[in-house]
Design brief:
Elements lengths: L1 E5 L7 H10 L7 E4 L7 H17 L5 E5 L11 E2 L6 H8 E2 L3 E7 L8 E9 L6 E2 L12 E4 L2 E4 L11 H10 L4 H14 L6 E5 L3 E12 L2 E11 L4 E5 L4 E6 L3 E12 L2 E14 L5 E7 L8 H20 L5 H7 L2 H10 L5 H12 L6 H17 L1
Parallel strand pairs: 2-3
Antiparallel strand pairs: 1-18, 3-7, 4-7, 5-8, 6-7, 9-10, 11-12, 12-13, 13-14, 15-16, 16-17, 17-18
């Protein structure tokens, strides 16, 4: 399994932490804020890696943070889409030498819509100089970045990096520690807002509270859930699975285990395939770990049939590009276009991923949830790719 951060003994309420960080109105050498990030594109990926590198090098002895979903001008919290890329550490490891430990968490805020959260990236250095391992976009392999005020800049390494932020960050984290009032408020808010999907809570180790709710579905005597919300109330950290996801949940004395499935197939021949397992493990010393393991084994289908599906999708995409009206059966085919391209790509149709990305702007205005399906397919591809 791939470990994420261990929980901190003095539990930090991440919502409070974000508010305290934003109180420092200007980004500085220990935190940055972004309206959004896009690590699906080379430029966005390169800039994200640059900021990770710079913050790690500028804060060798304490955590640094990036807050995502905030307007730069006035600190208005507008939120971003839920981002569950558990393989982000693999991306960091692939592109950075001496990579820091990086965690991306989704933090709910009461005033945001249900589908929006604030992204919180926590960067924990390992005490060594971090550099780009290889070229990406316009940045060269071997480049070293530091923070110059609110800007991440390439600099020549100096052996005596001044540690000027440890006490500031320590004070911010201390002021964001959880208490029983925050915990109870969090539980009551979750139970009231998610009662339509049988909201439940579970206390682990007499300290941690996990709330969860989901729409139950029984398929061939197996129980699955969709539209699943899971919240670690102590830290205000949210795990979320959309209406397109199917998950199974197992609760033991010490663990909360989620197995995510993906429903793949064509021409009414669909099957559930395990995609990823997430295990929250609660320990006796008031700490926890979140570990993920990719389970996915790409299903193999008849190549002749896939060639027909691939060509049909390509013809459909061309009609969309030309703005032509779709026939009734083509509208139905369109709803399966993203998943069909995914199946083709997983069966060695290398160009299918390019076709899928080309289709993005033409799927945004379509009905039948086709754009949501596109986003779901891209999420699955990220998980598989970064593993």
């Amino acid at each position: 399994m791939i470990p994420a951060f261990a929980g901190i003994t003095d539990m930090i309420n991440k919502r409070l932490l974000i508010k305290h960080l934003l109180a420092h109105n200007d980004e500085n050498s220990f935190y940055d804020k972004k309206r959004k990030i896009d690590i699906g594109q080379k430029e966005g990926k390169a800039k994200f890696l640059k900021h990770i590198c710079a913050l790690s090098n500028s804060n060798p002895k304490n955590n640094s943070y990036i807050v995502i979903g905030v307007e730069d001008a006035d600190n208005t919290i507008v939120g971003v889409d839920f981002f569950d890329d558990s393989k982000i550490q693999n991306l960091i490891n692939a592109y950075l030498t001496n990579p820091p430990i990086v965690q991306y968490e989704n933090i709910p805020f009461p005033h945001l819509p249900d589908d929006k959260v604030v992204g919180l990236v926590t960067i924990r250095p390992i005490g060594k100089l971090t550099a780009l391992r290889k070229n990406i976009w316009k940045y060269y392999g071997g480049s070293v970045f530091f923070r110059d005020g609110s800007i991440s800049m390439p600099k020549v390494f100096e052996s005596d990096i001044k540690d000027v932020n440890s006490k500031i960050v320590e004070a911010i984290e201390k002021n964001a520690q959880n208490n029983i009032e925050h915990t109870l408020d969090g539980v009551m808010h979750f139970m009231n807002t998610r009662k339509d999907f049988n909201a439940q809570y579970k206390v682990f180790k007499e300290y941690f509270v996990v709330c969860w709710a989901g729409q139950k579905k029984i398929v061939k005597k197996e129980v699955f859930f969709s539209r699943v919300d899971i919240e670690l109330v102590n830290e205000q950290v949210r795990l979320f699975f959309s209406a397109l996801d199917e998950v199974s949940i197992k609760i033991t004395e010490n663990t909360f285990e989620i197995t995510e499935y993906v429903n793949l197939g064509y021409q009414k021949r669909f099957k559930y395939y395990p995609l990823e397992e997430t295990v929250i493990n609660f320990q006796d010393n008031a700490s926890y770990t979140i570990e993920t393991k990719l389970l996915f084994e790409p299903p193999q289908f008849n190549k002749k049939t896939l060639h027909h599906i691939y060509n049909t999708n390509n013809a459909l995409l061309e009609k969309l590009k030309k703005g032509l009206t779709l026939a009734e059966h083509e509208v139905l085919d369109l709803s399966q276009l993203p998943s069909n391209y995914l199946i083709c790509y997983l069966n060695d149709f290398e160009d299918a991923i390019d076709k899928l990305q080309d289709a993005k702007p033409y799927l945004k205005g379509q009905g039948n949830g086709v754009y949501l399906m596109y986003k779901e397919v891209m999420r699955i591809l990220r998980k598989v790719k970064y593993n």
